[in-house]
Amino acid sequence: MDRDPLARRVLELLTEIAPDVDPATVIPGIDFRDQFDFDSMDTLNFAIALHRELGVEVPEAEYAQLASLDKCVAYLEPRVK
Amino acid sequence: MPSEFRLPALGADMDEGTLLEWHVAPGARVKRGDVVAVVETDKGAIDVEIFMDGVVRELVVQPGTKVPVGTVLALVDVAGAEPAAPAPSPTPFATDRAKITPAARRRARELNVDAASLQGTGPDGAITIEDVERAKPSLQPAPPSPQPSPARAAEGAGEGERMREAIAAAMSRSKREIPHYYLSHAVDVTPATEWLAAHNAAAPVTQRLLFAALLIKAVALACRELKGFSGYYRDGRYDAAPDVHVGVAVALRGGGLVAPAITDTADKSLVALMDDFRALVTRARAGRLRASELAAPTIILTSLGEDSVDAVFPIIQPPQVAIVGAGTVTERPWVVDGKVVPRQVLVLSLGADHRVTDGRLGAQFLARVATKLVHPESL
């Protein structure tokens, strides 16, 4: 499966904060919450990782836009330098 | 005369564990709190710390051995007459431990790959499943490719079953021995949710808080003010714990749960408490909890989080004497000054031990938690 580098990076960060998730099983179009019980703690850790690694600070009010891999990439693409 | 380092009990119902690996070798200098071994238990692989300063004389138990709680694992020459300046450690690997995820450890065993020889590419250099699979001998027949649901991917059936048995044992004992009483209290927590939203909008991402952090702190403060909820019932009597360590129930993807403690909870600022909480959940899910964290809780909070149900009627984890539950915060019609208005409502609950307290004190306790919660600026 071909994925652009941003999606790959996001997937790396995702499995860094949730080491019990197998990256090969992540379905890009389905919300993380529905795939592997992603909860508010995961979302916060994910936002911290995105800030640390990609320099993007996601306001709490916009967490919903990080809900799936596809949504993440769409949200981050114009924001990552 | 060396001191004996024994396998500690990591909970009321643990009676044995399998030593998986040593992080020290004979001659290694250790200090209180160092993680010296990894032990597989029914709660997963646990980092076991040592609680003495000294030099390891002998490793008595070899990796792969299953031993009962209390078994002497190693002999340590305890520091005392030694020079104050620390000598250089003769064992470089004592500090350079190979981290490995539980799933990767299992996979390494299946594939007969020596995990210690691998270079990890996971968080903090942890060895992941991919690292193990890359290292497998090429003539190895392709492993059967199970297609478990994603949530089960990192959770072997064996491990899941063992954890289920451990939960069953602890909860059966609880229901058999502890005369529970239950209370619930619906609270308008709008002041807390508004305070939280304002805090999180202003704070850098690393200092944002979850609602659960407020709950944890509120429970800890209430425990300090009202006695009878934070402690242990053992040998027919109640011992109040001198310090409050709130355990937080953490659900594991793929089933099961653990309840490690945030130590000295009442003394921590919300941001410091949140840091500990975040680290604890991440390590619980990665299978890297420490023995002291599992043994420490003096009371547990089980918070259902978002998108769940109204209330939980929690079961005490022996030998503790109380457990606080929190349902999902939900917008509800609520009467304020004679008018029905939408408010954020949380149902708090308490399961407590009737051998130690009565409902009247329990009600005061729950009300105290609620009062703390709706004054978040004082947390």
3D architecture notes:
- The complex is a heterodimer of chains A (81) and B (379).
- Chain A is mainly alpha-helical.
- Chain A has a single domain, classed as ACP-like (Non-ribosomal Peptide Synthetase Peptidyl Carrier Protein, Chain A), CATH 1.10.1200.10.
- In chain A, 51% of the residues lie in helices and 0% in strands.
- Chain A has 4 helices and no strands.
- Chain A starts with a helix and ends in a 5-residue tail after the last helix.
- In chain A, 35% of the residues are buried.
- The mean pLDDT of chain A is 89.
- Chain B folds into 3 domains: 3-94, OB fold (Dihydrolipoamide Acetyltransferase, E2P); 102-153, Dihydrolipoamide Transferase; 164-378, Chloramphenicol Acetyltransferase.
- In chain B, 41% of the residues are buried.
- Chain B is globular.
- In chain B, helix 1 (102-111) packs parallel to helix 2 and helix 5 (211-225) crosses helix 6.
- In chain B, strand 10 (231-234) and strand 11 form a beta hairpin.
- In chain B, the strands form 5 sheets. In chain B, strands 9, 12, 15, 17, 18, 19 and 20 form a 7-stranded mixed sheet that branches. Chain B has a 5-stranded mixed sheet with strand order 7-2-4-5-16. In chain B, strands 1-8-6-3 form a 4-stranded antiparallel sheet, with no helix packed on it.
- Chain B contains 8 helices and 20 strands.
- Chain B is of the alpha+beta class and 379 residues long.
Question: What number of structural domains do the residues of chain B give?
Answer: 3
Low-confidence stretches of chain A: none
The CATH class designation of the largest domain in chain B is Alpha Beta
CATH T-level fold name of the largest domain in chain B: Chloramphenicol Acetyltransferase
Q: Helices and strands of chain A: which structural class?
A: mainly alpha
Give the beta-strand count of chain A. Answer: 0
**What's the helical proportion of residues of chain B?**
25-40%
